[in-house]
Amino acid sequence: xxxxxxxxxxxxxxxxxxxxxxxxxxxxxxxxxxxxxxxxxxxxxxxxxxxxxxxxxxxxxxxxxxxxxxxxxxxxxxxxxxxxxxxxxxxxxxxxxxxxxxxxxxxxxxxxxxxxxxxxxxxxxxxxxxxxxxxxxxxxxxxxxxxxxxxxxxxxxxxxxxxxxxxxx
Length: 169
Prior knowledge:
The chain has 169 residues and is of the alpha+beta class. It has two domains: 12-48; 68-162. 24% of the residues lie in helices and 34% in strands. The chain has helices spanning 12-40, 42-45, 55-61; strands at 68-74, 77-82, 85-88, 91-94, 100-106, 109-114, 117-121, 127-131, 143-146, 152-156, 159-162. The longest helix is centred in the first third of the chain and has 29 residues, at 12-40.
């Protein structure tokens, strides 16, 4: 007498596949929920200040770092303009800024000329003040520098202007 194997239900393999597909769908749903929450709290989590450095992710999405359009050294530190943003070293100074025109150290701080504005930056790299035409910054600001005696000079569209103590106080 031969032994017969017990018959498996014909849909048994479908049950196994159904279980694994359900687990995969649950995992995908969990990942989507977590990334969605993170994206909704971008500013709170400061995700807008972080940069993706993974070469695989950058290649998949076709992301290339914008070129450094301007840079200048002042007070032993570098001021860079990358894609319309200003940086002091790796710290962001301004999200939207005109073309970088120069930077000079001034009384322990840094005076940065960008577009038609002068930005006063603390030694820690924080933006202390942003001055435009209403504060006396010359129209068509092209450069900023120092005279031989240490005074701030700004080259505008109509000539060079010396800054007095009250302008930057």
